């Protein structure tokens, strides 16, 4: 019978779930282990009841059949989640997902017991299931996000409770969580899911607060620059990674061995794992230790101990935390009853959020199914970890909306930005590096955040850092300004901050990333004629020409765009030509480089200057332009035809050269299939050639 088969499937799924503890040796380290135990309690109550012959012999109602099917689905999904846990996936999102499923399984079990109320054991089972712990991590995180939105500093007790509840037991766990969440936030931004991105951004900030709390405890007696961000201990063998951050060698090597190819502090991807000894910091640490009679710990002993990283400590443990936070009780009208020891205003705000969303009882009200692939999983292996978005975030929509709300004081974003601006003025290079790196992350994604950052006065502080002798600080600062310039409301402020000379300074002295981002910033700001004048006065053309010669393909294209915007008069065009610009543009016409179209645009712009015509001819540019007319993209064909048209105008010598390169057949084809402008230019060239032919015939 179908009814029996549904019951049988449910019993099989429960048996499979109960077998996890004997077959999965990683269960004890699973951050959601306590939820496994809770579901196990309920499963052990269900098993003997459902396996009773009385149940199997009864013809169940449709409602009971559906309840069996729903409960079976929850049990099976919980089993899959516990079996698929990966250490390098998000612990917070994983625990929230498990908690939500466990709560649904609990409610579904109660429904089954109610429907089987004719059985003698049902009342006892119902009471026992009610005693099993309910969800609370999502509730705690909801309250924390409300405080975060209001700019209220979270207490150490709250940070410890959240960290322990989701299995973030050490500084290393916290840093890994930050890296994973940052990657997931970028994925959300790619698909323009602002709600999910905003929620994850709030979680990232929580992990930062946890790290800062631990660092404050460990570093209270000595300079923070002397501590490894991973071990939170004095460094004995400090090394610098390519992001410019310094770590204890043994700990950063372990980080890399785990497959984490990102900087733990900045969360930027690292192209290589090169470690450069930082002898300056090592000498400072040695002098400080000697002066203060301090013996730094042996990093090898720390890293090989059972607990190599400092543990979070708090008043509650992961095992007993289920009873440490009073839970809201929701009635049929979704009113929040009295919650002991919780601020009444927070209770009322939660009530308003839940009432607006009309969600089911509980704080976590929306599950967005999106596979979250662990960064450490094997190729082709998918770890299903659907997102969980609490009701507070569902209503706010995105973090930008959260920050924009009037709260009677500074938002958490403003508080954070103002602190980072102060760090930019610190005498500590590490503090400046961290501040510019964090500002870069904050300016990267959400437009509203850029407005808040500019309003806090970050632009002037960042412009000042463009003259930093530290290449990493300089590169991060110019990238921040580039990101801020993408918001039109910030362009005027940036332009009036005296940014153009500093940007040109970066173009001349920065590393390649800094030079290229400085160029992109100039492109972003060059739409206004007043700004273009200031760029020219700052001497932008010469370093832009050099970047066309030695930059990456992206850098070369951006430099070419900037020069197109700046070189509008013959005087500036001649500066480009004298700097070797035509030679670099011809080099950029290599199809393999992916820069052909941009190079052709600039050549067409320069071609009316006599020096440029000679340079194009002598540099072998004409046959390349003919090739683009024949084989290029529609836009490339259009601009190549325009360049040839300028070269051949009133010049029989250039007409003959272009004809000898076989230009006539592709030009004829272009008159039939090109863009409107391409057709016009092709027809003009063919008229020049026809006029030249008639002139030669008259002479003969």
From TrEMBL:
Reactions listed under catalytic activity: S-ubiquitinyl-[E2 ubiquitin-conjugating enzyme]-L-cysteine + [acceptor protein]-L-lysine = [E2 ubiquitin-conjugating enzyme]-L-cysteine + N(6)-ubiquitinyl-[acceptor protein]-L-lysine
Domain of life: Eukaryota
Top EC class for this record: transferase
U-box domain location: 221-295
PROSITE patterns attached to this UniProt entry: ARM_REPEAT, U_BOX
Pathway(s): Protein modification; protein ubiquitination
UniProt cross-references to SMART domains, sorted A to Z: ARM, Ubox
SUPFAM superfamilies: ARM repeat (SSF48371), RING/U-box (SSF57850)
Record's keyword annotation contains DNA damage: no
EC number: 2.3.2.27
InterPro entries: ARM-like, ARM-type_fold, ARM_PUB, Armadillo, PUB2-4-like_N, RING-Ubox_PUB, Ubox_domain, Znf_RING/FYVE/PHD
Keyword Repeat among record annotations: yes
Gene3D superfamilies: Leucine-rich Repeat Variant, Zinc/RING finger domain, C3HC4 (zinc finger)
GO molecular function annotations of the record: ubiquitin protein ligase activity
GO biological process, one term: protein ubiquitination
One Pfam family in the UniProt entry: ARM_PUB
ARM repeats: 457-499, 539-581
Keyword annotations from UniProtKB, A to Z: Repeat, Transferase, Ubl conjugation pathway
Role summary: Functions as an E3 ubiquitin ligase.
Protein name (record): RING-type E3 ubiquitin transferase
């Amino acid at each position: 019978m179908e009814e029996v088969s549904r019951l049988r499937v449910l019993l099989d799924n429960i048996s499979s779930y109960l077998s996890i503890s004997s077959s999965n040796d990683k269960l004890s380290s699973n951050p959601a282990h306590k939820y496994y135990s809770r579901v196990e309690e309920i499963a052990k109550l269900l098993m003997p009841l459902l396996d009773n012959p009385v149940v199997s012999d009864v013809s169940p109602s449709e409602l009971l059949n559906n309840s069996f099917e729903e409960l079976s689905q929850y049990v099976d999904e919980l089993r899959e989640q516990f079996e698929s846990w990966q250490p390098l996936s998000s612990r917070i999102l994983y625990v929230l997902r498990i908690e939500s499923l466990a709560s649904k399984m609990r409610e579904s079990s109660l429904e089954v017991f109610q429907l089987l109320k004719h059985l003698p054991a049902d009342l006892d089972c119902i009471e026992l299931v009610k005693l099993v712990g309910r969800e609370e991590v999502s509730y705690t995180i909801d309250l924390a996000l409300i405080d975060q939105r209001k700019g209220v500093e979270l207490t150490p007790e709250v940070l410890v409770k959240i960290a322990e509840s989701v299995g973030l037991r050490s500084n290393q766990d916290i840093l890994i969580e930050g890296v994973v969440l940052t990657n997931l936030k970028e994925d959300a931004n790619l698909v323009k899911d602002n709600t999910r991105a905003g929620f994850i951004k709030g979680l990232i900030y929580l992990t930062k607060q946890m790290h800062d709390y631990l660092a404050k405890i460990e570093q209270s007696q000595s300079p923070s620059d002397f501590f490894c961000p991973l071990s939170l201990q004095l460094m004995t063998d400090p090394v610098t990674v390519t992001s410019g951050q310094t770590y204890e060698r043994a700990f950063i090597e372990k980080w890399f061995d785990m497959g984490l190819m990102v900087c733990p502090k900045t969360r930027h991807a690292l192209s290589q794992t090169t470690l450069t000894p930082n002898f300056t910091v090592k000498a400072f640490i040695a002098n400080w230790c000697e002066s203060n009679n301090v013996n730094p710990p042996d990093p090898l002993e720390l890293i090989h101990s059972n607990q190599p990283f400092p543990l979070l400590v708090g008043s509650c443990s992961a095992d007993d935390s289920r009873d440490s936070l009073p839970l809201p009780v929701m009635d049929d009208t979704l009113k929040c009853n009295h919650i002991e020891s919780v601020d009444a205003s927070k209770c009322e705000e939660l009530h308003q959020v839940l009432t607006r969303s009309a969600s089911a009882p509980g704080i976590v009200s929306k599950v967005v199914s999106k596979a979250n692939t662990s960064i450490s999983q094997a190729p082709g292996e998918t770890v299903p970890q659907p997102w969980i978005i609490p009701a507070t975030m569902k209503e706010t929509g995105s973090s930008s909306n959260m920050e924009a709300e009037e709260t009677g004081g500074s938002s958490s974003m403003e508080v954070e930005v103002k602190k980072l601006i102060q760090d930019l003025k610190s005498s500590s290079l590490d503090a400046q590096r961290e501040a510019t790196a964090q500002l870069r992350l904050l300016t990267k994604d959400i437009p509203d955040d850029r407005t808040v950052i500019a309003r806090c006065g970050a632009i002037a502080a960042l412009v000042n850092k463009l003259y930093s002798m530290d290449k990493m600080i300089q590169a991060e600062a110019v990238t921040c300004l580039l990101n801020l310039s993408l918001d039109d409301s910030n362009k005027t402020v940036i332009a009036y901050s005296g940014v153009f000379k500093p940007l040109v300074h970066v173009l001349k002295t920065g590393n390649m990333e800094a030079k290229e981002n400085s160029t992109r910033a100039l492109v972003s700001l060059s739409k206004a004629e007043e700004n273009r004048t200031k760029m020219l006065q700052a001497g932008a053309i010469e370093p832009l020409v050099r970047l066309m010669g030695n930059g990456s393909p992206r850098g070369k294209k951006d430099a070419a765009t900037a020069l197109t915007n700046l070189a509008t008069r013959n005087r500036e065009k001649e500066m480009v030509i004298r700097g070797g610009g035509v030679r670099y543009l011809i080099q950029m016409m290599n199809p393999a480089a992916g820069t052909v179209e941009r190079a052709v645009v600039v050549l067409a712009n320069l071609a009316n200057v006599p020096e440029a015509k000679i340079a194009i001819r002598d540099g072998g540019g004409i046959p390349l332009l003919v090739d683009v007319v024949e084989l290029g993209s529609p836009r490339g064909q259009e601009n190549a035809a325009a360049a040839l048209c300028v070269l051949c105008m009133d010049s029989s010598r250039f007409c003959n050269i272009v004809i000898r390169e076989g230009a006539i057949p592709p030009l004829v084809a272009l008159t039939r299939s090109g863009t409107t402008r391409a057709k016009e230019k092709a027809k003009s060239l063919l008229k020049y050639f026809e006029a030249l032919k008639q002139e030669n015939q008259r002479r003969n």
